[in-house]
């Protein structure tokens, strides 16, 4: 069994940019994403909170490239079901909100993620690596960043940055492995949605 707790994040690693932004920064939530399953020899990922305890996890056991993935809380309760759909050459992941028994609460998916194949980079901007459609509201989000790289951002329908993902660093500034990431969520972000999108990115990059 893999460890269920890691060292809490040091507060000085994410200081506010200036005193005027301190209230905003205090509402940000910082997580550590480890692209490892809590199950020995399993495939998945574990997301730890600022207290160092596991908050979300994905355990696909020994399966590779599964077409059905479940996001759970630390106790094993299913929160989100991810299904892979093929539409010709386009591969799409659909997310369904789940109830206590793991069944979807809605017939229609909550969101749909499609990898962006035509990437046009604009000067000073990230590449668009995936497009996210929120089904019920019709809003379109995007995931910006180079494909197969650890650093990327989740951008809301209004252009606001909902979350940023980067390789985690130690207190001395040493970058950890590609499978250890730091996830910072903004105060307006839907936590479960962001977690689901981070998991989908791992699936698209074949890390899970």
Automatic annotation (TrEMBL):
InterPro entries: LOR, LOR_sf, Tubby-like_C. It comes from the Eukaryota. PANTHER family: PROTEIN LURP-ONE-RELATED 2, PTHR31087. Belongs to the LOR family. This is Protein LURP-one-related 11. It comes from Oryza meyeriana var. granulata.
